[in-house]
Design brief:
Blueprint (H helix, E strand, L loop, with lengths): L12 H16 L3 H18 L4 H11 L4 H18 L2 H11 L5 H16 L3 H18 L5 H8 L1 H6 L7 H7 L9 H4 L11 H21 L29 H7 L1 H22 L1 H4 L2 H16 L2 H11 L4 H18 L2 H13 L5 H15 L3 H19 L3 H12 L11 H7 L3 H27 L11
Helix pairs in contact: 1-24, 2-18, 3-18, 4-7, 4-16, 4-17, 4-18, 5-7, 6-7, 6-8, 6-12, 7-8, 7-23, 8-24, 12-24, 14-16, 18-21, 19-21, 20-21, 20-22, 20-24, 21-22, 22-24
Length: 468
């Protein structure tokens, strides 16, 4: 990739600092999988230090290694479902129409940021693909758009508010009894989405973060004469329309017929209608039904089975990090939750906090741990046993504790490139190209998340865990 050309101005001081930090993080931060392996060893050594026998630690690690297989599959399908919907012909036409809306470079970046975050409230998998393609479209149509700023804006959905929306790993897991590990269920109970993402406090927090993010994206975008465009970065967009094979054989005709996909999609959506009628919309919205809805919608939008399978094939590589790392997180969960580590950490949380400072402590701890475990669902499995036990001790609202975790754990996404990978593939960039502007967003969001997590906690009261 060509090196940046020298401009008359290097941009605002905060943008310069962000680029410097992005370069440093790319140089010294290893792959997220290394962090997962290091966390296993750290927890193992911690168990030895507390006096646990090595044989027990090894046994709990191996015995729990496959405990998250259903949850791992569910998370992989969140990515696949979002991808197949975003890459459908109808959404492709919608992206083309949206790309024609902004008329200025700054407006284009703010426009991308807004759609990144609003779409991530529906699905973070959809957001990454949808806004990645939107960046490509606006850079074709609007002159002088800084490609790095646009790419960073496309990541703001996953970088900031996705965990406060419908695809929140922690909130959906807590609402799905079959996804909650047996050792965690007595501590947290089943927490309805009405007590997490649909709290008015949570919706207000998400709205504030969206407004701030769009504002920062707009005002930090370089002027056209100072921008580093896609062309300057050596990024070329090639038209690559899907080739439609001639359905000359009966098998080919079946693969190209929309009948099969649409018919099955209608059955899937009909099932969801029955679920919502029986349980209510919020109660029926768990991980399984969420994924069923996106797969059914993807089948409907693609129509032809061949088109649908092609989209799935393109989405699968983006699931590799989830598939390989979640078993290691499950092993960490086993070591923590089934040994003295859990009680020690829960006691530590209670000892150093008060009912008033507990929300701040949860936010700070979740953000720091997120640097090493960049997975909302996987990290919640590790963190929940002792954090939620402490919440019960202090009579903190359990649903809001989940939402504090959700808001804070997304902060390190702005500096950890793990979840940028699918977007980087769409935009053909490196993490360092996006991280500078992401770090700039982090400087504004960290104090805001801590303040609102604490302030809104004062408006909620404690409820006992609800067991299924």
């Amino acid at each position: 990739m060509p090196q940046p050309t020298v401009k008359a101005s290097k941009g605002p001081p905060l943008a310069q600092a962000g680029r410097f930090l992005a370069d440093a993080s790319e140089r010294y931060f290893p792959d997220a999988f290394v962090f997962a392996l290091a966390a296993v060893l750290l927890v193992f050594v911690g168990g030895l230090w507390l006096g646990e026998k090595p044989s027990r630690l090894i046994s709990e690690f191996g015995g729990s290694f496959w405990a998250l297989v259903p949850f791992t599959m569910q998370m992989a399908l969140v990515i696949i479902g979002g991808f197949v919907v975003a890459s459908s012909p109808l959404l492709a036409r919608a992206i083309g129409a949206l790309g024609a809306v902004p008329k200025t470079a700054r407006g284009a970046v703010a426009f991308v940021a807004f759609f990144a975050m609003t779409s991530s409230m529906i699905s973070w998998g959809l957001s990454l693909v949808f806004t990645g393609l939107l960046v490509r479209e606006v850079t074709r149509r609007v002159a002088g758009v800084d490609y790095r700023a646009g790419g960073a804006a496309a990541f703001l959905g996953l970088g900031r508010v996705w965990a406060l929306g419908l695809s929140s790993s922690a909130a959906l897991m807590q609402a799905t009894p079959s996804s909650i590990p047996a050792a965690l269920l007595p501590v947290t109970g089943v927490i309805s989405l009405s007590e997490t993402i649909f709290l008015w406090q949570s919706l207000l927090l998400a709205a504030v973060l969206i407004v701030v993010s769009v504002g920062v994206a707009y005002y930090s975008c370089p002027r056209p004469e100072e921008a580093r465009t896609a062309q300057e970065m050596g990024v070329l967009f090639e038209a690559n329309p899907e080739r439609t094979r001639e359905a000359a054989t009966p098998a080919g005709k079946m693969e190209e017929s929309p009948f099969w996909g649409v018919a099955v999609a209608l059955l899937m959506l009909a099932y969801l209608g029955l679920e919502w009628q029986e349980k209510g919309l919020i109660a029926a919205l768990d991980l399984n039904n969420f994924n069923l809805a996106f797969l059914g919608l993807g089948l409907m939008l693609h129509g032809r089975p061949r088109s649908f399978l092609s989209a799935v094939g393109k989405a699968v590589p983006a699931t590799s990090g989830v598939l390989i790392q979640f078993p290691f997180y499950a092993g960490i969960f086993g070591i923590i939750s089934k040994t003295s580590i859990a009680s020690l950490l829960a006691g530590w949380f209670v000892k150093i906090s008060t009912p008033g400072t507990f929300p701040l402590l949860v936010a700070l701890y979740s953000a720091v741990l997120g640097v090493f475990v960049p997975s909302g669902g996987g990290k919640w499995i590790v963190e929940a046993p002792y954090v939620m036990a402490s919440a019960n001790t202090w009579h903190a609202h359990l649903g809001w504790t989940v939402q504090i975790y959700n808001a804070a754990e997304a902060l390190p996404n702005l500096i950890n490139p793990f979840w940028m990978l699918p977007l980087m593939g769409i935009l053909n960039v490196k993490a360092r190209d996006l991280a500078g502007y992401s770090i700039l967003q982090l400087l504004f969001h960290a104090p805001l998340v801590f303040l609102l997590s604490w302030l809104l906690a004062q408006t909620l009261t404690y409820h006992l865990p609800v067991l299924p």
